[in-house]
Prior knowledge:
The protein starts with a strand and ends with a helix. It folds into 3 domains: 83 residues, TATA-Binding Protein, CATH 3.30.310.20; 61 residues, no CATH class; 112 residues, Hypothetical protein, domain 2 (Endonuclease III, domain 1, Orthogonal Bundle). The chain has 13 helices and 7 strands. By secondary structure, the chain is of the alpha+beta class. 50% of the residues lie in helices and 13% in strands. Strand 2 and strand 3 form a beta hairpin. Strands 1-5-4-3-2 form a 5-stranded antiparallel beta sheet. The longest helix has 16 residues. It holds the Pfam family HhH-GPD. Its EC number is 3.2.2.21.
Amino acid sequence: MRSRFLKPNGSLDPEHMMRTLGIHSIPTLDIHESAALRHTRVISVESGPKAVELEFASDGVQLSCLEAAASDIDQLEAAVRAWLDLDSDLAGIQAHFDLDVRLGPLIRTRPWLRMVGYLNGFEAAATTILGQQVSLAAGRTFGGRFVDAYGTDGPGGLRIFPTPGAVVALGVGTLRETIGLTNSRAATLFLMAEKFAAKNFTGTSGIPLDRDELLALRGVGPWTADYLQMRGRSDPDAFVPGDLVARRALERISEREAAALARSWAPYRSYAMVHLWASDAAS
Length: 283
C-alpha cells in the first residue's frame, strides 16, 4: 500500500466534495462511502489502471493505492489534484465575490467550495447526456447500465469507463436496447461517441470538441455545452444560465437575466455556479 497526503491550496470543504462525488457516482465505477468521507475509483496512469482510495478532511486528501509503484504516485497525485481542483487559489475568488449581494453571504458561509471536474472527458460527455431531463438517481442508473455493458474490468473489483470506440463498434441499436434509452437520447450519445473516436480520444480529461462542434450534434443544446465547458473542461469562467437549480437559487429569474447577472462574476463564473448549487442543496 502506497499513500500520500495531498494538501490543497488553502483548505477544502470535505462534505461538499463528497456530496458532489456522491450525486454523480455510478455503481461499479465508484465506491462512495459518505459517512467515512471516502471515495474509491479507478485512475489510469502510464503503467495501467489503479484502484485509488481517497479520504477527505478539511486540510487535505489522503490518497492510497494498494498496487501502485513508487513511479505511479506522482501521476496519481497530478490526476487527483486536477480532478478535485486542489491547486486553485480560492482566496482571490473569495475576495472577488465578497461584496456581491448574492454570492458574498454564500462565500462567507462556505468559503472552500472547489470545482470538481472529471477524470475522463468522454465520461463527462456521456454521463451528461445520460442525465439529461431525468433525476440524478435515474441518471446514475443509466450510467451503471452503460458502464456494465460497455466498460471493462479494472482493479479492485471496479470497472473502467467505456471508450468511445466500444460504443461505436456495437452500433446505436445496441446502445438503445442495452441501456433503455429513447431513440433520440441513444442517437445523441452515439453521435458523441463517434465524434470523440474521430478525434482519437485516449481517455484523458478534457473535451476534444469545441462549443460549435458540440452544438452541431442533434440533442446537444446550450445547457449541455455550457455544463461541459464548466465541468468537462474545468473552465473557471463558464456559466450555465439555463440551469434550473442555479436559477432557483437566484429567486427563479429568467435565463437571460441569469446570464446578464453573471457577467459581473467573471472571471470566476464557474465558482458562482458551484456556490449556487450548494446553496440550493442546503435549502
